[in-house]
Backbone:
C-alpha cells in the first residue's frame, strides 16, 4: 500500500479493472450487438461472461492457441455470413469479436490500456449506423466511462471509489470540448464523408424507387422515417393541396408494373421564375432523385433536370443534402413536346386490361373533348363506390380491369395506375408521377416535415396547347388525403406508424419539438459542409477561405494553444524553481549520485551528509562544509551573497 | 540545547531505560506547549515517565486516576459551604497544578474526559459560573490503554486532536530490561529525583523555542506533507491546520533541543509520526488507530523541495 497514487509500468489488472473494462466494452459494442446476427452477439456475450467468470473463480487466462483458434473460427463464420471480411457490417463484426477475444487475454495494465483505446475506435464505428442526437449522447456517455476506466487503471494505492475516476474523466472531457469545437469548425471539410462509407451502409435506406406495382407503396406508408424537410422562405407555406413533391416519373407500363425510363432527355435550363422559394434538406435515400414542388424552377448544384421535370443528382444521395429551390405552383409545362414523347406516353401492352380499353373507347365516343373525358372519369371515381384504403384486396393478371370493375378498393397507386391506363386507352398522353404529398408543418421549427408515409402517386396528362397538367384521381376518391394528410384519409383500422396519426396533443407537441431539435442538429452539426464552413468563416471575416487558409488558421490556433500551455507550465516551473542555493546543492548531490551515493528524495541534508560522510570518510570534510553552507542559506535564513558564492564554488569544485 | 534540558533528559533516561527517543519527544512536546498522550499496554512505564518529567522540570504534579465513575468535579474541584465564614469556599481539584497526569484517560466516561479536555484547550476552567485560570505552565500527560482493551471509552477524533503528540513506549529491549531488573526500585528512584529547572526557566525555554527560524523552503516541505495527506486517497481525511501548527511547533522544539536556531527537514521528519499518527486514519477506518506504516510511507514518498 502506498500513500501517493503512483504509476507502475505493467501491474496486473485488478478484478475491478476487468469488471470496468468488460462493462464499458459491452456498452460500446451494445448497439452493434443488437444489430449483428444472433450467433455473433451470443459469442461476444459468452466471451465477456467467460472473462467475468474467470475473474470470479480466480482461474487462469486461456491459452494463446485456443484464442487464436476461436479467432480464426469466428473470422470464418463472419466470412460465411457476409461473404466478405470488409465493408461496414462484416468489418464491425470482426472488430467486435476480436476485441472481445482481446478481453480474454488482457492481464496487465498495458493490455487494459490498449483495449481501452481500441474501445474508443469501436465506439466511433457506431456512427457508421446512426448519427442522431441520442446516438451521440450515448457515445458521449460511453466515451466518458471509457476514459474513467482508463483513469481507474492508473490507481495503485487504495481505490478511492468510482466517483473519483468518473469525476476526473468528466473534467478531462470537458477540457477537450473547446478543442473539439475548434477542430469541428476549422478542420478543412471535404465534400461528403472524409472516407466513404462502405457500400453496404446504404442498404437499409428506404424511399421511392424507379418502379411501381400494386402494393409497392404500402411498405413506404408504414415507415415514419423522414424523407426530407423543407423550410419556406418568409414562412409562406403553400396550401396543402399544392404540396405535390415531384419524384420519379414512370412512363412505361407492362400490364402490371410502371417503370421509369432509363434515359430521359436532359434540359439545360429550367424557367427560374418560381413563385415560391424554399430550402429542402433531403435525407439520404441512395437514389438520385431530388424532390421539389411541382414544377421546379431551378437546378440544385451538382444535379440535372430532365425533360419530364425530374431533378436528378449526379450521384446517389448518400449523405444529407441541402438545396435551395424555387417552384411555380399551378403551372404546366411541355406544351411543345414532340411526337416521340407523346407516343411513349400513349403506349399500352397489347391485350392487357381489355375491359378498360373497351370502357375507354366508350368514353371517347361520348366525350369528344379531352377535358370533359377527364372530368367524367374523375366523376366516376367520386360518385361510384370506390374506396380509399391501405389494405386493398390482391389483384390478378389484369389488375386495372379487376380494380375498376371488381374490387374498387385501392390505394393511390391503384387509382393513379388505373387512371393513366384509361387515359392512354382513350388517346390522351398520360404518365404516373410518384413523390410525396403534403407533409406535416412543424410550428416549433417553422418547417414542413415530409415522411416516407407521405409517399403518393398521381398522374399527369398532356393537353394540347396547355402541356402537361397534374390530375390526382386519389383526390376525387378521398379529398381528405389531399387536404388533411394520410392519417385522416384512412380508416382507423388501417395500420399506420404511431407518429403519423397525431392522437395525443402533448405527445404530438413533444415529437414536433424533438424533430425540430433534430433538424437543427442536422443543419448545423451533420450538415456542416464545406459551403457552410466557408460561410461561417466569411462571417468571421475570412472570405474565400480555402482549405489552405483553414489549415493555416488551425496551425495558428494550435500554436497559440501550445504557447499558452507552455506559458502556464513555465509559470508553474518558475514558482517551484529551486533557488540558487538549492541548485548548487543539487549539483553536489548529482556528483555524489554518480559515485553511487544518491540522495533520497525525502532525505534531509543532515541525514544525507551523515550517511555520505560515513561511506566516504575521505570526503567527509567537504561534504560537511557544503551541507553547512546549504543549510544556513536555505533553512537558517542567512542569505549572505558571500556564502552563496562560496557554496556555488565549493559544489562546482567538489570532486567525488 | 541548554544544559538544563540535557540534565533533564539524562535524569529521565536513568529511570526509563532505553527510551531516549520517546523521552526527547516528550520533552519537545512540553517545550512546544503541547499536551502529551502516551499510549501503550499497562506496565511499560507510562506513569513513571510522566512523574519523572514533572519532577525533573521542577513542576507541581498531580495525578488523576481515571475510572469509569470519575466525575468532572473530581477533576476540577468543588465549592463547599463553610459554616465558619458563612459562604461557599472553593476546593480546587487536582487539575490546578502544572503537570496533570491523567492516568488511563480512556477508562473514564466521555463526560469526565471532556472536563479535562476543556481545561487543556482553554488553560482555564469554569466551575459554577466562575472562570478560574490554571497555573502556568499547564501540561497534561495522559496515558491511555490501547482502545481494544476491555472497559475503555476511546477518545473521539476531535479530542485526540488536542494532544500535540502521541507516543508509544513499547517494551524495552533485552539489555534495558536486564538493567531494569538489576536496578533499584523505580519508586524510590523517583523520590530521589532532583528538579533541574523551575517554571520560570521552562517558560523562558518555551519562548526561545518560538524563535526558531522556519525558512520558506522548510514551510514548503511541511505544506507538501500536509497537502499529501489531504490529497491522498489512502487517508480518510487530511491533516487540519491545527495539525500543521502542531507539526511546526513540535519540529521547532526538536530543533531547539538539537541546539539549532533554525528548522531542518529532519526536525519535521523526527516529530511527524508522533504529531500526526493519532490525527490520521487510513481510508475506511476510524482515527486513532495504529498505522505507522502509512505515515512512514508519507515520509518516504514526499520529496523535500
Residues:
Amino acid at each position: 500500500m502506498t500513500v501517493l497514487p503512483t504509476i507502475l509500468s505493467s501491474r496486473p489488472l485488478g478484478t475491478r479493472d476487468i469488471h470496468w473494462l468488460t462493462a464499458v466494452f459491452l456498452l460500446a459494442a451494445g448497439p452493434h450487438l443488437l444489430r449483428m446476427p444472433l450467433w455473433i452477439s451470443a459469442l461476444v456475450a459468452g466471451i465477456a461472461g467467460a472473462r467475468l467468470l474467470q475473474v470470479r473463480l480466480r482461474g487462469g487466462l486461456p491459452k494463446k492457441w485456443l484464442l487464436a483458434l476461436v479467432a480464426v473460427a469466428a473470422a470464418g463464420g463472419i466470412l460465411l455470413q457476409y461473404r466478405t471480411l470488409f465493408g461496414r457490417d462484416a468489418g464491425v463484426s470482426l472488430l467486435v469479436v476480436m476485441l472481445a477475444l482481446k478481453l480474454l487475454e488482457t492481464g496487465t495494465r498495458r493490455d487494459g490500456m490498449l483495449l481501452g483505446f481500441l474501445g474508443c475506435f469501436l465506439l466511433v464505428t457506431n456512427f457508421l449506423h446512426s448519427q442522431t442526437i441520442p446516438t451521440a449522447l450515448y457515445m458521449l456517455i460511453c466515451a466518458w466511462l471509457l476514459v474513467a476506466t482508463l483513469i481507474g487503471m492508473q490507481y495503485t494505492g487504495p481505490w478511492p471509489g468510482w466517483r473519483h475516476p468518473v469525476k476526473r474523466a468528466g473534467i478531462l472531457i470537458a477540457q477537450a470540448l473547446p478543442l473539439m469545437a475548434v477542430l469541428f469548425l476549422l478542420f478543412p471539410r471535404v465534400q461528403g464523408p472524409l472516407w466513404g462509407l462502405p457500400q453496404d451502409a446504404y442498404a437499409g435506406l428506404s424511399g421511392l424507387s424507379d418502379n411501381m406495382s400494386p402494393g409497392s407503396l404500402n411498405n413506404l406508408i408504414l415507415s415514419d422515417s423522414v424523407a426530407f424537410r423543407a423550410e419556406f422562405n418568409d414562412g409562406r407555406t403553400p396550401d396543402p393541396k399544392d404540396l405535390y413533391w415531384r419524384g420519379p416519373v414512370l412512363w412505361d407500363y407492362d400490364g402490371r408494373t410502371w417503370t421509369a425510363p432509363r434515359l430521359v432527355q436532359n434540359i439545360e435550363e429550367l424557367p427560374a421564375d418560381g413563385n415560391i422559394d424554399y430550402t429542402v434538406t433531403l435525407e439520404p435515400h441512395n437514389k438520385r432523385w431530388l424532390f421539389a414542388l411541382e414544377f421546379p424552377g431551378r437546378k440544385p448544384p451538382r444535379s440535372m433536370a430532365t425533360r419530364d421535370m425530374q431533378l436528378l443528382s449526379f450521384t446517389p444521395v448518400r449523405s444529407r443534402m441541402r438545396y435551395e429551390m424555387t417552384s411555380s405552383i399551378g403551372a404546366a409545362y411541355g406544351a411543345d413536346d414532340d411526337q416521340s414523347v407523346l407516343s411513349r406516353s400513349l403506349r399500352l401492352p397489347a391485350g392487357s386490361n381489355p375491359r378498360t380499353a373497351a370502357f375507354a373507347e366508350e368514353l371517347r365516343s361520348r366525350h369528344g373533348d379531352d377535358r370533359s373525358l377527364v372530368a367524367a372519369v374523375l366523376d366516376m371515381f367520386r360518385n361510384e363506390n370506390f374506396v380509399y384504403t391501405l389494405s386493398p384486396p390482391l389483384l390478378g393478371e389484369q389488375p386495372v380491369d379487376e380494380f375498376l370493375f371488381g374490387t374498387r378498393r385501392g390505394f393511390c397507386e391503384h387509382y393513379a395506375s388505373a387512371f393513366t391506363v384509361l387515359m392512354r386507352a382513350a388517346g390522351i398522353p398520360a404518365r404516373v408521377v410518384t413523390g410525396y404529398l403534403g407533409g406535416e408543418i412543424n410550428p416549433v421549427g417553422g418547417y414542413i416535415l415530409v415522411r416516407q408515409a407521405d409517399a403518393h402517386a398521381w398522374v399527369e396528362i398532356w393537353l394540347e396547347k396547355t402541356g402537361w397538367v397534374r390530375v390526382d384521381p386519389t383526390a376525387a376518391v378521398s379529398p381528405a388525403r389531399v387536404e388533411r394528410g394520410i392519417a385522416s384519409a384512412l380508416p382507423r383500422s388501417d395500420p399506420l406508424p404511431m407518429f403519423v396519426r397525431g392522437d395525443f396533443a402533448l405527445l404530438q407537441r413533444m415529437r414536433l419539438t424533438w424533430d425540430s431539435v433534430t433538424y437543427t442538429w442536422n443543419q448545423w452539426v451533420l450538415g456542416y459542409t464545406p459551403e457552410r464552413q466557408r460561410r461561417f468563416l466569411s462571417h468571421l471575416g475570412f472570405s474565400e477561405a480555402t482549405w489552405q487558409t483553414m489549415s493555416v488558421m488551425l496551425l495558428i490556433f494550435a500554436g497559440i494553444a501550445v504557447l499558452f500551455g507552455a506559458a502556464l507550465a513555465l509559470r508553474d516551473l518558475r514558482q517551484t524553481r529551486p533557488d540558487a542555493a538549492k541548485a548548487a546543492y543539487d549539483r553536489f548531490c548529482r556528483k555524489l549520485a554518480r559515485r553511487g551515493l544518491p540522495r533520497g528524495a525525502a532525505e534531509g541534508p543532515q541525514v544525507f551528509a551523515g550517511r555520505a560522510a560515513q561511506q566516504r570518510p575521505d570526503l567527509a570534510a567537504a561534504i560537511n562544509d557544503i551541507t553547512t553552507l546549504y543549510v544556513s542559506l536555505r533553512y537558517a535564513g542567512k542569505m549572505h551573497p558571500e556564502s552563496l558564492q562560496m557554496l556555488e564554488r565549493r559544489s562546482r569544485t567538489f570532486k567525488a | 540545547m541548554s544544559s538544563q534540558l540535557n540534565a533533564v533528559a539524562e535524569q529521565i533516561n536513568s529511570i526509563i531505560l532505553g527510551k531516549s527517543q520517546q523521552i526527547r519527544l516528550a520533552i519537545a512536546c512540553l517545550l512546544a506547549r503541547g499536551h502529551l498522550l502516551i499510549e501503550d499496554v499497562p506496565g511499560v512505564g507510562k506513569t513513571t515517565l510522566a512523574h519523572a518529567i514533572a519532577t525533573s522540570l521542577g513542576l507541581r504534579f498531580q495525578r488523576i486516576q481515571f475510572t469509569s465513575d470519575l466525575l468532572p468535579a473530581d477533576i476540577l474541584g468543588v465549592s463547599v459551604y463553610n459554616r465558619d465564614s458563612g459562604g461557599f469556599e472553593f476546593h480546587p481539584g487536582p487539575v490546578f497544578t502544572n503537570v496533570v497526569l491523567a492516568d488511563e484517560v480512556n477508562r473514564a466516561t466521555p463526560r469526565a474526559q471532556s472536563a479535562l479536555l476543556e481545561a487543556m484547550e482553554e488553560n482555564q476552567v469554569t466551575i459554577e459560573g466562575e472562570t478560574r485560570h490554571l497555573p502556568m505552565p499547564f501540561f497534561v500527560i495522559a496515558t491511555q490503554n490501547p482502545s481494544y482493551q476491555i472497559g475503555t471509552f476511546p477518545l473521539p477524533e476531535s479530542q485526540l486532536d488536542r494532544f500535540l503528540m502521541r507516543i508509544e513506549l513499547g517494551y524495552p529491549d533485552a539489555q534495558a530490561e536486564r538493567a531494569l531488573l538489576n536496578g533499584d526500585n523505580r519508586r524510590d528512584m523517583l523520590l530521589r529525583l532532583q528538579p533541574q529547572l523551575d517554571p520560570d526557566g521552562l517558560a523562558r525555554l518555551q519562548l526561545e523555542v518560538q524563535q526558531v527560524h522556519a525558512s520558506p523552503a522548510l514551510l514548503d516541505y511541511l505544506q507538501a506533507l500536509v497537502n499529501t495527506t489531504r490529497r491522498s486517497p489512502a487517508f480518510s481525511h487530511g491533516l487540519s491546520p491545527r495539525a500543521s501548527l502542531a507539526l511546526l511547533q513540535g519540529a521547532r522544539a526538536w530543533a531547539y533541543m538539537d541546539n539549532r536556531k533554525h528548522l531542518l527537514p529532519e526536525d519535521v521528519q523526527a516529530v511527524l509520526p508522533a504529531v500526526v499518527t493519532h490525527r490520521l486514519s487510513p481510508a475506511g477506518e476510524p482515527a486513532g488507530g495504529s498505522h505507522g506504516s502509512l505515515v512512514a510511507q508519507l515520509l518516504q514518498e514526499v520529496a523535500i523541495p
About this structure: Chain B is about 45% helix and 15% strand.
